[in-house]
Amino acid sequence: MKRWESWVGLLGLVLVLVGSYMGLFVAPRERFMGDVQRIMYIHVPTAQVTLLIFTATFVGAVGWLWKQAWKWDHLVEGSIHTGLLFGALLAVQGAVWAKPTWGVWWTWDPRLTSVAVMVLSFLGILALRSFVDDPVKRATWSATASVIAWVNIPFVYLCVRWMASLHQTQTQSHQMDPAMKLPLNLSSIAVLLIAIHFVAVRWRIAARQRARELAE
Amino acid sequence: MVRKELLHLWRARSRVVATFAFAFATLLLFSFAGGLNADLLRANAAGYLWVGLLLASTLSLGESFRVETAHDSLEMLLLLPVRPTAIFVGKAVGNLVVLLLVGVVMVPAAVVLFDATPREGLAPLLLTVLLGTASISAPGTMHAALSARARSRDLLLPLLLFPLVVPCVIAAVQASRACFTGDVMDELGAWLRVLVGFNVVHWSLGALLFARVVED
C-alpha cells in the first residue's frame, strides 16, 4: 500500500469516528423521528458517496472507450468493487432506519427500487468482467455496460422529487440546525476519504493483475 | 439489415413458436403460483403477462446472437459495407418483431387464463405491448451481443438485462393494469410516456455504443 493511500484511509477512519460520536452524542435530537434519525449522519454520506463512486465508474468507462488507456479500466474496476460495497452498506443502513420509521425493512418506493436497480446493474457488470478472459474485450464490454447502467443514477437522485415517494426529498443546508451540519459534513468528508482509499487500493490491484495478464 | 433479420426470422419461425410456448408455460405456472384465486389472478394479470414476456425474451435474445457467433457470421457481417449501427438496428428490430408477435398472442392468452378483459379497449393495450417489447429489445440486443461471446452467456444475459429493464417492466405493468382494470386514476398516458422515454434513451445508447461491442 502506498503511503498516501494509508494516510487518506486513516484520516477517513478518524473523521468517521469523530463524526459518528458527534452525530450520536452531541447533535440535537430530531423533533419528529427522535434518536433513530442519528443514522442519517452515516446513511446520507454513504448515499452521496455511492452515487459519486458509480459516477467515477462512468467517467472511467467513457475514458476507456475514448482513449483505450488502461488507467481508465483500472478506475472502472476499482470503483465498481467499492461502489458495490458502499451500495450494500447503504441498503443495510436504509433498512435499519426504515423498520422503526416506516414499520418495514424494505418497501418498493421509487428511491429504494432505483437503488436496488443500480446495485444489481453494476453487480451484473462485475459478473461480466469475471466471465471474459481477453483483457481488452473485458474492458470494452464492461465500459459499454457501465455507460448504460449509469443512466439510472440521475434518476436515483431525482426520483424523490419527480415521483410520489415515501423517502423524503434532499434536506437543504439552510433547513438544518448548525449543530447537525458539522457531524454530517465531517462524516461526508470521512466516507469520501475511505472510498478514495478503497478505489485507490483496488485500482492498484487491478493494474497489477492487468500487467500480469498482458505479460502472459 | 432489417430485411436480412426478418428473412432469417422467417426461415427460423420455430424460434417465435418456441419463445411463445415458453411464455405461455410461465403464464400457466403463475396461475398455479397465485393459488387459483380468480380475483388475485385477474388483479395480477398485467404483472404475469410482462414477467412471462421478460423471461421468454432472454431465450429469443440469446438465440439471435448465438446463430451469429456459432458460425463466425458476426465477423462476416462486419465485413459488409454497412455501419455497425445498422447491424444493431436490424438485430433490435428482429428481436422486437419476435417479442411483439409473442406479446400479441400472450394478450388473449392472459385474457382467457386470468379472465382479465381489457376495459380500456384493445388499442392502448397493444400500444403498451409495442412500447414495452421495444424497451426490452434495445437493451436486450445490446447485452445479448455482450454476453454472446463471454463464458456462461446464458447466466450473464439475464444478470445484465433484468436490473436494467426494471423501470420499463414497472411502466409496462402499470400501463397494462390500467388497460385491464380501467384507467380510473388517468395514469395510462404517464406510464406510456415513461416507456417512450426509456425507448429513446436505450435505442440511442445502443446505436451509439454497439460498434464498440462488436468491433473489439
**What percentage of amino acids of chain A are in beta strands?**
under 5%
What is the CA-based Rg of chain A, rounded?
A: 19 Å
Helical residue percent of chain B? over 70%
N-to-C SSE series of chain A?
HHHHHHH
Q: Mean pLDDT across all residues of chain A, rounded?
A: 91
Number of strands of chain A: 0
Going by helix content, strand content and strand pairing, the class of chain A is mainly alpha
Quickly count the helices of chain A: 7
- The overall strand count of chain B is 0
Low-confidence stretches of chain A: none
Distance between the termini of chain B: 21 Å
Q: Would you tell me the overall average pLDDT of chain B?
A: 89
Tell me what you see in this structure:
The complex is a heterodimer of chains A (216) and B (216). With 216 residues, chain A is mainly α. Chain A is 79% helix and 0% strand. The longest helix of chain A is centred in the last third of the chain and has 38 residues, at 178-215. With 216 residues, chain B is mainly alpha-helical. Chain B has one domain (2-215). Chain B is globular, with a radius of gyration of 17 Å. The mean pLDDT of chain B is 89. The interface between A and B is medium-sized, with 28 and 27 residues.
